[in-house]
Amino acid sequence: MGNRGMEDLIPLINKLQDAFSSIGQTCNLDLPQIAVVGGQSAGKSSVLENFVGRDFLPRGSGIVTRRPLILQLVNSKAEYAEFLHCKGRKFVDFDEVRQEIEAETDRLTGSNKGISPIPINLRVYSPNVLNLTLIDLPGMTKVPVGDQPQDIEHQIRDMLLQFITKESCLILAVTPANTDLANSDALKIAKEVDPQGLRTIGVITKLDLMDEGTDARDILENKLLPLRRGYIGVVNRSQKDIDGKKDIRAALAAERKFFLSHPAYRHIAERMGTPHLQKSLNQQLTNHIRDTLPGLRSKLQSQLLSLEKEVEEYKNFRPDDPARKTKALLQMVQQFGVDFEKCIEGSGDQVDTSNLSGGAKINRIFHERFPFELVKMEFDEKELRKEISYAIKNIHGVRTGLFTPDLAFEAIVKKQIIKLKEPCLKCIDLVIQELINTVRQCTNKVIRRGWLTINISIMKGGSKEYWFVLTAESLSWYKDEEEKEKKYMLPLDNLKLRDLEKSFMSSKQVFAIFNTEQRNVYKDLRQIELACDTQEDVDSWKASFLRAGVYPEKDQTENEDAMNSSDTVSMDPQLERQVETIRNLVDSYISIVNKSIRDLMPKTIMHLMINSAKDFIHSELLAYLYSAGDQGSLMEESAEQAQRRDEMLRMYHALKEALVLIGDISTTTISTPVPPPVDDTWIAKEPSPPASRPGTTSGAPPSRPPGVRGATPGPPSAVNPSPAFGPPVPSRPPGDPNSVPLVPSRPARVPPALPPGVPRRPPAAPNRPTIIRPSEPSLLD
């Protein structure tokens, strides 16, 4: 492999996988790895057990692998296993390893065939393995069993695509030999994500179970459905051997004997079998890691730079230092005051270009929303005239009035001014809510996270569970708690809550979110139905929505008194003139009042609320916090913050260690490059020269094909096989009685036509061995 540094590549990737998996992150890095894909009972688990030399994977019928298993094989003098979720515990008994895999799988998926994309990390140390990292994925299935969902086929497919779509992932496509290769699920899905075949390695299992008289020679020689990295055949233990506890070492010896003794495979026996597969995967994964090192290094450096500033605060961090707590409190209050004033005054360094916030929203309330609420107030002309008429009559009493009374004007105006109280209070509420949102924005506060189920009709996809994040500005939901794949973000403006009755088909408690302006909330839905397991969860979520400014729907009960028809009487002309006079005066006066209120309300709110809030934050908030209680407990580091600090420091050190290791590795090491594309156009055509096997030639093996005529006669020279056959295999040492020259099996080439007048070479002697011309460009190069 060139140097010691190249041998450290796979352990380096193992360390990165452990470092990022332990903190629940992937650091946005696609680490090089090998994913094992195939149908159910294709023999994937048996191949992995043959690598280790131990029985350690769950067995059974149907779907057995129900969570991805990241298997890290490490060459070591001692033999034991470790799980990432059981740190510090060494498993010497591999039966306990199997039991732990089953228990950890059932912990997340249940015991009735459910699946989960969250992987299990297992590291096996053994002197019998080469450094190798593989991911054993669930086998592809068609029919759901147990409590599996109806779309189990699509779920498994999506899980496989999560791994094999990445360009850094090699694909180990496992296909049994006793099935039609053209219908291989593994090769089909590999072809979708790797159409050029740059990352796919074919493995053919169950060669010993093929029908009598048939073999897989064309497949293993890469003639049928060729792959750039070729195929490798293996023979696993049968179910009878497994039930009989047949030793894996004996099974490997039987596998070796099978390939050496089988007439169709004996000429490629050195390139078949589990040991060669493990060695080939080790070499190809190492080369693949070497090729991806430049991109991996740049990603690591960018991640490290993004963490530098935040980690700088934690390098000399002492949680119990009282001076640190006092300083941190003072800095937090000062920074909060600066951020709050910037949000209100609009002088922030970072300007939001997607949404209005802070002072801009308050300005919109003052000059758009509040005037609209005033204009929206409509006076019932008939009702107003009737009120004026009653007021005039009640003021005159038993006398007939000759003049329009001033008291009627005052009574009517006072009543109309009282009606302006509601839009003014609504304006104040809107400003208060926006101030609360601004405070939360300055503190970057997430109100709640958790799982909720969105109830959608079966015709539109059915109910699904998502990870919800509620902030002061929006409600977002993601595919899972890693919060990487956002499904939707719903702004909280004009949203309210509504109680719903529990469905008779579900045991979950349900509530709904809807828009008060009758707009669609999500896609074409006017409301979103959210479900929780218990009523306590519903109440807890409602309380969280209240903190975010989303309130429950109020019951609209209109108790309007019916108008008494007997009170509606005709008025005399004099009374009508008095009513018209007061009506005009009221209209003019209310217009003046509206203009004054429209002008005074923003000024009053700014003076009494916003400026007072700024003064309180700058001058009184710190003193208030000191007088509120024990500062030590107030500034005590929360468990979440301590965990985040530890995770960030571990991530930082893992990135630095990875960059140091990568820096020590020579990227100029000579290794086998990716094979060139397979030219299979000659397979369909029969060459004109005879290409029959020289079965009667003495001294040549019966299965050896003819070669291409060389320039000079002589004994056959050792050549590297075609890349389609796999990595180069060295010649056997001299003196080996079983040494057989390795000549690739392929038809003879048709010589190109010569121009007229140029004599052709005489044909070769019938029994003379032929030599491959070294300088001829071909697939052997």
From TrEMBL:
GO terms for cellular component: cytoplasm; microtubule; plasma membrane; presynapse. One of its GO terms (biological process) is synaptic vesicle budding from presynaptic endocytic zone membrane. Residues 713-736, 749-766 have a biased composition (Pro residues). It is found in: Cytoplasm. The keyword Coiled coil does not apply. It comes from the Eukaryota. Residues 28-294 form the Dynamin-type G domain. InterPro entries: Dynamin, Dynamin_GTPase, Dynamin_GTPase_CS, Dynamin_N, Dynamin_stalk, G_DYNAMIN_dom, GED, GED_dom. Residues 668-781 are annotated as: Disordered. Residues 579-670 form the GED domain. One of its GO terms (molecular function) is microtubule binding. It is an enzyme of class 3 (hydrolase). Its main location: cytoplasm. Residues 445-550 form the PH domain. Its EC number is 3.6.5.5. The keyword Nucleotide-binding applies. Keywords: Cytoplasm, Endocytosis, GTP-binding, Hydrolase, Microtubule, Motor protein, Nucleotide-binding. Belongs to the TRAFAC class dynamin-like GTPase superfamily. Dynamin/Fzo/YdjA family. This is Interferon-induced GTP-binding protein Mx. It comes from Pundamilia nyererei. The gene is DNM2.
